[in-house]
Amino acid sequence: MRYLLSSLLAVVLCFGAPAYAGSHMKTEGDVIQLRDDHPKEYVVVKGDTLWDISARFLQSPWLWPEVWDMNNQIYNPHLIYPGDIIYLYWCDGKPCLGLKRDTGPQAKVTPLEDAIPTISLRDIAAFLNDNRVVDEDLLERAPYVLGGKNQRIIAGAGDRVYARGELVSDLRQQSIYRPAKEYRDPFDNELLGYELFKVADTLVAARDADVLTLDLTDSVEEVRLRDRVLPRSEEAIESIFTPRPGPDLEDAVILSVIGGVANIGQFDAVTINAGMREGLEAGHVYAVYSKGEDVRDPINGETVRLPSERAGEIMIFKAFDKVSYALVMRATDVMTVGDELRLP
Known about the structure:
With 344 residues, the protein is mainly β. The protein has five helices and 21 strands.
């Protein structure tokens, strides 16, 4: 899994960039709006990201797929490396961005891991490696920790613990998770799933009826009674996902912010009440609108809700069935739980 993460962070061309002054985002129909101060070409440097580069040219960075013209004469044209030149030209009456790279006989083959990175690994690693959201049925079927040797109630790496129940998968490699949060839709109270935090990895050493003997190989926190045993999350992570507007969502809001802070800012991770069921995928971008305040009319005393104001954009980086994790790509104002999502 860590190898997959390293590959992801090396080649995904989509995350993290500073907010550019004057980069007001707007599109008029299908017209691509260029920044007034856009360069004619830009030489990629180490530390750049696709969002950063796109924002140098476009007023709406998530419209990159509309302007990117891959050069099929270049090896790995979908990847961008330091030293590459991104240049602006016009095709069929609209702006396009192309790539120039040294392809001469002296050109070196550049490893995938040298492609421009996304955000820092520490910003999303926990959500790709250690956190998952499951439905109620899977959580209830998962075996639970009974205890450790010598009646110990907590254990760590190198210890042996026992669990009770039927494994969801017969794989010897399993993980131990702790339920962290229940997610419900704020509009109809639908149960959207349970967030689980991985506390340890383990190997199944033996089975005796419905009692499992587990050897802990690695632990993030102490394993405790009632923790759940599930197969390691080894699903393939998309190595490349491009920022783009997602499908139109009804009643989509920020459910929570990871870390429990009250105010949400740039590069914070949030959970939203929509997922694969609604067609969400990694790379989908949404605008966040802060809820308008309720004020009292000074003339007639009525309570009036002020209009919602755009506060920034988020990008989905991991979608589950009914919820998704997203990263705040830009924050022009403070965001809070309950803020609504709209098409960018």
